[in-house]
Design a protein that fits this description.
single chain; mainly beta; 6 strands; about 40% strand; globular
Length: about 150
């Protein structure tokens, strides 16, 4: 009765939880919903490759105190996320966005360890986080001052 199941298991045929093929690499992604802190800027690498750098601000809301008493809740803080895009097709779109635009961003997250021989006060001597732009969606454009007049 179980001979077919034993035969399949013995020959390496196992049921997968997903029908999609497995990847041979790991992924570190970051999803942000926030506002552009300033207009995206066009920059150039040392090898004259053009890219766009932009900053997304997100708000961190602290959890409420465990017991509601006269203790005041901490103020919300802001985190600034610096992203880079090397995709020429996306870069022209990014350049059209302005400060204050609310965006949904997906980025690849890369953490680079410091060079042990570098001076700790330099960027090479410090841990660096690189956020490489993958996708962006505009959720809301900023209110222009002319529209309210």
């Amino acid at each position: 009765m179980f001979s077919a199941a034993r035969f399949a298991f013995a020959n390496g045929q196992r049921r997968a939880f997903s029908t999609s093929s497995s990847r041979s690499y790991d992924v570190a992604k970051l999803t942000l919903v926030g506002r552009l802190g300033k207009d995206p800027e066009v920059r150039t690498t040392k090898s004259d490759r053009e890219y766009v750098a932009y900053t997304v601000a997100t708000t961190n809301y602290p959890p409420p105190p465990p017991i509601l008493t006269a203790v005041t809740r901490q103020e919300a803080g802001t985190s600034w996320h610096h992203l880079i895009s090397f995709n020429p097709a996306q870069n022209s779109y990014l350049k059209s966005l302005t400060k204050g635009t609310q965006v949904y961003v997906e980025a690849n997250f890369e953490l680079r360890e410091p060079d042990p021989n570098a001076d700790p006060s330099t960027s090479a001597g410090q841990r660096q986080i690189f956020l490489r732009h993958e996708t962006i969606r505009v959720l809301r454009t900023p209110h222009s001052q002319n529209a309210s007049e």
